[in-house]
Specification:
Layout (H helix, E strand, L loop, with lengths): L12 H4 L3 H20 L3 E6 L3 E6 H32 L5
Antiparallel strand pairs: 1-2
């Protein structure tokens, strides 16, 4: 009976600290973005698809571009995993 009993031991220290580098990388990226944004506060003119011709502070445009990049960087791996799982379910992945 003792071998049927499942005991959960705490994970090793290396496993618990594995995602810590991601928080450091995120913090460094946010800090660099903040430095770049604060140094670029001038007003700039921009065009969107040759339709909208406007001007805005460069800070807003940089933050918007960073937000778009973060959304793409977050969703692309999720969509890729979903596509891979779907292909496996239909037997198309060898």
């Amino acid at each position: 009976m003792a071998d049927r009993k499942q005991t959960s031991s705490p994970p090793p220290a290396a496993d618990r600290k594995n995602p810590e580098w991601k928080w450091w990388a995120f913090g460094v990226a946010v800090l660099l973005l903040l430095i770049i944004v604060l140094q670029n506060s001038q007003e700039v003119a921009f065009k969107v698809l040759f339709i909208v011709d406007s001007s805005a502070p460069l800070v807003v445009l940089l933050l918007f571009a960073a937000l778009i990049g973060a959304v793409i960087g977050y969703t692309a791996p999720i969509l890729r995993r979903h596509r891979h799982k779907t292909r496996q379910e239909y037997g198309k992945d060898k």
